[in-house]
Amino acid sequence: MLTSIVAAVVILSILIIVHEAGHFLVAKRLGVRVLRFSIGYPPRLWGIRFGESEYQIGATPLGGYVRMLGEEVGEEPRSEELATYIDELGHDLINAAHKHQSEVTGADSKLKVRTLHNDLAAQVQSLAEVGATEREVFGRDLKIDESIVLNRIRMKGSFDAARTSLCEDPPEGLLAQFHARAFPTQRLWKRFAIVLAGPFSNLIFAPFLLWIVFMYGVPILQPVVGQMQAGLPAAASGLKTGDRVISINGHPTNTWADFSATVKLSNGRPLQLEVERGSGAEASRMTILLRPVREEEKTIFGTKAEEWIIGVLPNGDETIKRDGPIVGAYHALIETGTVTSELVTGIASIISGAVPVRQALGGPIMIAQIAGRVAHEGFSDAAMFTVMLSIELGLINLLPVPMLDGGHLLFFVCEAVRGKPLALRHREMALQVGLFLLVVLMAFVIFNDIARIVQG
Question: Residue 287 pairs with which residues in a beta bridge?
Fold first, then answer.
C-alpha cells in the first residue's frame, strides 16, 4: 500500500511540475510576473524565494498552481492586489541589497549591517546616515516602480505606511508598471499562450518520455502461444502451448503485437501460420491453417466491440528492444499519436454516453493502485503509465469547463469574438459552477474507486 501511495505521488508530482512549468516559463518569457510556483496546496511545508518568484511545496499533494500578478478576475487592480505587488517590490529591493552587499568586498561595515536590516524603512534611513547612493546599496539602478516605493517609504517613515498610502492613491507610474506585469492586462494572445502552455507541456512531455523509454529498452512480448480457449479456432487447429509463430501468410511475425494485429485485421480470412515447435535439435517447423471468428471483446474503455479472434493468449516470454535516438524519436511520436487517439475516443465515448461513467472513470485510489503495480514491474511500465496520464491530463485540461485551462481558453475565445472580455459577474458565476462540478466529480470518482474495492 505504501509503495502505491508513494508511486502515485511521485508520478502525479512529475506531471504537475511539467504542467505548471509550462504556465510558468511562458508567463516569464512574455513578461508576466509570477509570484509563486507551488507543488501541492497549503499549508506550506517548505519554500524558497529566488528572483521574483517564490517556489514552495504544500502539504496537500496531488495538485499545484502558478500564481501570477493580478490573476484574480477584474478590470482594475484591487487594493489587495496592489498591496501584494508593493510587498513584492519590497522583497526585490531587499534581495537586491543582500545580493550586492554579499558581492562587495571591503565595503563599509556600517553600511553592510544597517542596509541588511529586515525593515525596509530602516534600510532607507541607513542610506541617509552613511551617505550611500542607491547604486552603492542595491548594485543597480532602480526600476520605476521600485523608486516609487522607496521614495514613499522616505516620505512616510515606514514600509507599512508607504504601502497603505500607495494603495489608497497609487501614482500613474506604479499603475502602469502593474498593468505591464499583471496577467489580466496582457494582450489576448499572450494570455491564451500562457494558459495553453500547461496542457501543451503535458502533451509534449509524453513523446519526450517515450523517447527515453524506447532508448532505455522496452519489454516486448514474443509471439509464443500460451493458454488457449476451448471451442475457438486456436485450440481446434492443433496449436500447442509453447509454439512460436514465425510468420502469418508469409509475413514475418516478430512480436505478439504483430500476431494480434494481423488476426484482428484479417476480416475473417483464413490465416496460414508457420510455427516452430520445440527448441534446439528437437525444434521443428509446421504450417497450421485456421480461420478467425468474430466475437465481442471488452475494450480498454469498458465497452464491448466485436473483434476477429482465434482464442489464444501469450505465454509471457519477453525480450528487451532498444532503439537508437532517431528511431526512438520516430517510434515515440507514433506511439504518442496512437495513445492520444485512443484517449480522445474514450473521452468522446464517455461524453456521448456510449460508455457508462461509473465504468470508465477512476480517481486517485485507482491511480495509486495502478501506480503501485507498475512501480513493481519496472521503469518502462511506470514510464508508459506516466505517459498515458500525461496525455490524459493535457486533454482533460483542454475541455471547455470553467476552472480548467480549457474553460479559460473558452473565455478568451468569447473575448476575441465580442471584442471585449465577458462581464466580471458572468466569469465569477462560471468559475463557481466549474468549481462545484469539479468537487462533485472528485467526490464521485473517489466513491467509485471505493465501490470497486468493496465489490472486489
Answer: 274
99 membership: H or E segment, kind and range: helix 79-103
Residues 446, 362: Cα–Cα separation, whole Å:
8
Q: Can you tell me whether residue 133 is helix, strand or coil? A: coil
Query: Where do the H-state alpha helices sit in 378-423?
Result: 379-397, 405-418
Q: How far apart are CA 318 and CA 328, in angstroms?
A: 19
Percent of the chain with pLDDT over 90: 29
In 10 A of CB 129, how many CB atoms?
10
Identify whether the C-beta of residue 40 lies closer than 8 Å to the C-beta of residue 63.
yes
Across the chain, which distance is largest between two alpha carbons, in Å? 99
Residue spans of beta strands (DSSP E) within 169-216: none
Sequence-ordered list of residues with C-beta below 8 angstroms from that of 350, at least 6 positions apart, any chain: 301, 357, 360, 361
**Nine-digit cell at 377?**
514491474
What is the per-residue burial (b if ≥16 Cβ within 10 Å, else e) of 188-203? eebbbbbbbbbbbbbb
Span 224-253, mean pLDDT? 88
Determine contact, residues 74/183, Cβ cutoff 8 Å.
Answer: no
pTM of the predicted protein model: 0.81
CB 34 within 8 A of CB 24: yes
| Residues 6 or more apart whose Cβ sits within 8 Å of residue 135 | 141
C-alpha span between 398 and 201 (Å, rounded): 12
Please write the tens of the pLDDT for every residue from 93-105: 888 877 777 776 5
- The SS3 assignment for 301 reads coil
Q: Which domains does the chain have, with CATH numbers?
A: 1-32+188-217+323-456 (no CATH), 79-181 (no CATH), 218-321 (2.30.42.10)
Are 252 and 276 spatial neighbours (Cβ–Cβ below 8 Å)?
A: no
| Residue 118 CB burial class (10 angstroms; 0-12, 13-18, ≥19) | exposed
Determine the straight-line distance between the first and last CA of the chain, rounded to whole angstroms: 16
Cell 486456436 identifies what position? 234
Strand partners, 297: 305
C-alpha cell read off for 29 = 518569457
Write phi, then psi, for 78 (nearest 5 degrees): -75, 165
CB atoms within 10 A of CB 48: 9
Residue 181 makes CB contacts below 8 A (sequence gap 6+) with 31, 32, 33, 69, 85
Range list of β-strands (E), 292-385:
293-298, 304-309, 312-314, 318-321
